[in-house]
Every structure is written in structure tokens, then in C-alpha cells.
Automatic annotation (TrEMBL):
UniProt KW Magnesium keyword: no
Ranges of residues in domain Peptidase C45 hydrolase: 118-353
Pfam family, one: AAT
Organism lineage: Bacteria, Bacillati, Bacillota, Bacilli, Bacillales
InterPro entries in the cross-refs: C45_proenzyme-like, Peptidase_C45, Peptidase_C45_hydrolase
Assigned keywords, A-Z: Acyltransferase, Transferase
GO MF annotation: an example: acyltransferase activity
Organism this protein belongs to: Alteribacillus bidgolensis
Name of the protein described by the UniProt record: Isopenicillin-N N-acyltransferase like protein
Amino acid sequence: MKRLTLTGSAKEIGYQHGYEGKDEVHQSLQTYEKLFYGYKKLNWKAAKEIALTHMDAIEKYNPAFIEEMNGAAEGAGVDFEDILVLNTRSEIALTTTSEGPTFSDGCTSIGITSPITNQTMIGQNWDWKASQTKSLLLLHIEQENLPSIKMVTEGGIIGKIGMNSAGIGVCFNALLTDQKSNQVPVHLGLRSVLNAYTLEEAISSIHDSQMASAANFLIGSDDGRGNGLAMNVEVSPFGIDLLGGETGKVVHTNHLCSKKIQQNVKDLNTFKQTDSLLRCKRAEQLINEKLYQKKPINEETLKTWFADTFNAPNSINHFENKRAPEHRQIETVFSIVMNLTERHASVCVGKPSEAAFHHI
């Protein structure tokens, strides 16, 4: 995975992203153009039109995001709307605004903190199309008057999964639903969480109806001394719901859990029973097994959980299922474990059952 250090103004950070990650940006554009048309019968021009409906909300939310996306477009030699589409890809792909088979990322996220351990650790497997392995970028972002960020993303997308120097970290679980608005794309919400110094700032940036589509943000925060909290924050166009955290363990996969949000949003994950729920229950079982055995839980434990192959191919460590419809043939593209107490992280490119984690 290519590592980039991005510094300067929002425009300069974006330009470096696009210029140094040009190949990865173009890989993302190829992947999503094919996906949108192949599965949703949506051409790129139509995808740009959908993305542009979010511009007013983004400009009001954080104009620096517009500058950064403009910079990325210039650096990569593409149109601004191309980068905007990438950052709106969940809103385009994960709602019923167009025809075709439904598809989404598959991800398993886990958070462990006090009272189970004396550290705050979060992580996930990101399951998606294998071709997007070639789009991965590890960004180290140094921003003026904001925390520094370590983030794994797809080329051209300015917000995704990672942690910051203030001890805030976020994981992402896609949710396939029937509702979206013209508000702020969820990937820009992820970046706002990573721009936050405190948990209160992080939640404030995504609360109420600011997010344009439904998703789960597993957010962790630690003061650097082991005083921390991790919780699932399901977001939607109708507000948010904070789920779990008080017991020191949180798990989320790819289905809606909030009864509050389900009053307005319908979960369309037709593979909930056979994939998402099974991965969720398995993750809970693995955590409970360690607790019952009174064995310590540390970063290596999380790495082992993310390498779990029970119920393969639809395991936590996800394998491509050649017997499934094409739009469901996804696999673990990368895995990340973040220690928010000690402010470091490890990433595995590919399936953790087959590849090693490396410190970032």
C-alpha cells in the first residue's frame, strides 16, 4: 500500500493526494464506473448529477472539504465532479435511487475498552471488491489547527477509516437502506470525526440529520492513559443513535441495529441472516470466549479475531464466494487494528488469515 504524507492547506493536501496517488485515484474511478453501470445501470454522467445534489450541504458543512476535493482533482488530472462522486459513492450505491442488484461493503468492526482492558482498541476488516486493493492509500495528514490523522482510504476519497493524534478513531460499516437525503455524504462525516479533538466534537459533527445516508461509525476515544470509550454510532438522514460501549465491548457488521432509526429507515440487506448477523454473532462469541477463559485481550487478540475463518467464505475473514451473485463476490481487502491509548495502529493488506499486519 502506498504511503503518503500530506501537509499544508486543504487545497495543498488534496493536490498531494491526487498527484502522488494518481494511479490509485484512477483505479477508484474505474472500479466505481463499472460498479454503478454494471449493477445499477447508472452511467457516470448520472452519478455526477447525483453527487452534485450534495454540494450545497457540503459547502455549509465544511468548505475546506470542497477545497481538498478540488486539489485532489487537479493533482490527479480529473474533473472535480469525478472526485465528488467517489466521496458520494455510498449515497449513490447504497440506496434505492436507481435500478439493479443491491450491493454494499461487508465489514466486521470490533471495539474493546475498559472495563475489559486497560486500553482502548478498535479495528475492522474492510470487505469489498478485490480490485480496490490497488486503490488503497495510507495517508498521514498534517493539518493546521487540527489533529494529525492516520487513515486508510481508497484513492480520491478524503475520509475513511483511521485515527488521530487526539486519540479519536473510527471504523465504518456500510448499511444498505431505502433512504437518503441531499445532506453530507457519510465519508465526509468520517473525516469530520477524524478532525475532532474530543468525543463530543466527533459526535456533534454527525448528529441530528447531517448525514445523507445510513451507516455505522464505530467511534473510539482515549485520553492516552487508558480512560476511554468505544461505541457504535448509527447515522441516518433522520438522526443518529448511540449503541453500546458501557460493557467495554462493541461489535457491528452490516445491518441496522437501532430501533429508533428503523422507524424511518428500512434495512435492505437481503443477506442479513446468512452473512451480517452470523459475522456479528461470531465476533461476540470470540470476545465472550476470551472473557470466560479469563485470558487477556490485546492487539494480537484482535488480529486473531479478524483472521477468523469460521463459516468461510462468509466469515469475519471474508473470502470471495464464487457461488454467489457477482455483486456479492467480495472479500477482505484490508484489516486494521488501532490502539487509541498508545496512539498507534497496524494494517494488513489482504486477508489477515493469509497476510501479516504491519505497524503504521
